[in-house]
What does this fold into?
Amino acid sequence: MSTDVTPVPDAGRFDYAVRTPRLPAPPDPALDGAPIDRAARMRMYRLQQELRQFEKRAYDLFMQNLVKGTSHLSLGMEAISAGFATAMQPDDYVFATYRGHAHTLAKGVAMTGVMAELLGRENGILGGKGGSMHLTSAKHNMMGSYAIIGAHMCIANGTAWSAQMRGTDQVTVCFFGDGTTNIGAFHEALNMAAIWKLPVVFVCENNLYMEYTPIDYITAVPHPAADRACAYGLEKIVVDGNDADAVYLVARDAIRRARSGGGPSLVEATTYRHGGHSRADPGKYRPAAELEAWLGRDPIPMYHQRLLRIGVSEAELAQIDRDVAAAVEHATEEAKAGAPPSGDVLMTDVYADGGAAWRN
Amino acid sequence: MAELTYRDAVAAGIAQEMRRDSRLVMLGEDIAAAGGVFKTTVGLLEEFGPDRICDTPISEQAILGAAMGAAMTGIPVIAEIMFSDFLAVCFDLVANEMAKVRYMTDGQVNVPVVVRTANGGGSRFGAQHSQSVENWTMMIPGLKVVAPSTPADVIGLMAAAIRDPDPVIFFEHKSLFASKGDVPDGEHVDELGSAVVRREGADVTLAALALMVPRALEAAERLAGDGISAEVIDVRSLVPLDTRCILTSVAKTGRLYTVEENPRLCGWGAEVASIVADEAFWDLDGPIHRITTPHIPLPSAEALEDMAIPSVERIYDTVKTTLG
It folds into this structure.
């Protein structure tokens, strides 16, 4: 299948009304028969449901003004998290950007702690000190969500380097957005990963918009990540990021390559966010026809249909949906029950002695 | 006791710790085969091999990122940033990433990284290779900041920085590389956050850092000739800051002069002056004076650079004229 972006006339740069829609490519029907076992597919279905229902709930909580600050949702982009998480081992490392709720949950971090962190409660996974944009769970090897794009790709090299030095077979998977491909750290990280043959997979979630500006308006090549791969001696890999099976197959290959000493990969997964860039953004710069077309390529109903075609029962899927809904409800209640953080923690953990003392 | 140059003490301090801890690694530009552009890492590749002494591209963000990521998994790392001026091109890693990650994650991770970097003027390199930028890092919660002035301190504070679980910015002064001093035999480990009284005195306190320490000592010697007894404190560590040492000295002398190479605004001495004004006001017999580089980029020509950076003459004159 082609995932090339439709060329766009210049007038749309300045006038949303004449902006040409960037339309999705159709799904690949051959993926129904992809060599993926049933358990992996059921896991990906459940994960996508968890991420979708969690993010919808997070959105509702913003609307109720229970989540303060900002937040960046992965609604519409769940297939990428689900596909990669299913291809990873539990001790592999993950890095994410500020759009990191989905990757954190997919790594196995419990919903309650993540939801409580969004709400700024003491039972949040960061005790209320990090918030939506910095979700981290070191015990899950979820090594952090970084809100200044690019640097985290350099840091991801560090955990990959560590695995290489320690002689483990752990792989690091680092997610980032299309906008990250134009910052210097992206290029520094890829070059170092390539020359040191680091066991790292860089995954560009290309949702077609930097923040408010189409990525193709401000990038010299059509595929912001994949077209740069050749500069670092890497293969050009573009995958349908709205199809969990397509993502899974590419992820499995790239992770296997990294685990076996074959060095880094750069994967570009084409996708689309259902909402705006952040809480503050209604996304009005996107043509109606484009949004409609991409909503029609929603990864979850499509996956649901595929599972029915390969013989999974509607009842089994409906049960998963209900279980996930109950889990999100339960997590929301538990999170809301948490108290705001006490002032006792304001001055803790700046330094490794547990405190914040900078003088005697 | 053996005599070493400050330059050789850098490699000696690193080697001491690399022999002790087989996990410790170092990365940076031209540090391995070339032995460092200041020849501070000569011999380390030969002793510890290319898996532990790693040459990198000119990619300061990639250097500090790799250091931080490895450190987050428990591996202690020394990262060299060739000139401290270049901290500006990787300041995101310094100021936003390694400094904050412990607090932001509620203490989930430590970052045992030492960022070694050549700091300061006197080399006629001009404004982009000569700055004293210790105040850039001092102001950031989560970092520790060290600037030794003697070969023994290079080894002892290097060891302390490497063994410290927090990120430490370690400023080596370019104009001190050729200086010599005695270093203790055997393993030498000092303590972060401790200042040292280099010369005892009764009339004035001169608090100095790095290259300013030998200059303050020379000025003190000249002042002694005029009957003025100057106590010289080598501050050594800006974070943690040994305020007790400074406050104790001011309680004795009643007069404080900070001797700072950094440009004036927000130099480390401003914080010291503020603390002393707050906490030792009634000990003071006169105003606190800051002797600093003016608030300018450093010029290149020898004559101009020497005018800009506090000299022995300027320290001496300032004390003489202000003491009344």
Observations:
- The two ends of chain A are 65 Å apart (CA to CA).
- Chain A has ten helices and six strands.
- The domain at 36-345 of chain A is CATH 3.40.50.970 (Rossmann fold).
- The longest helix of chain A spans residues 38-63.
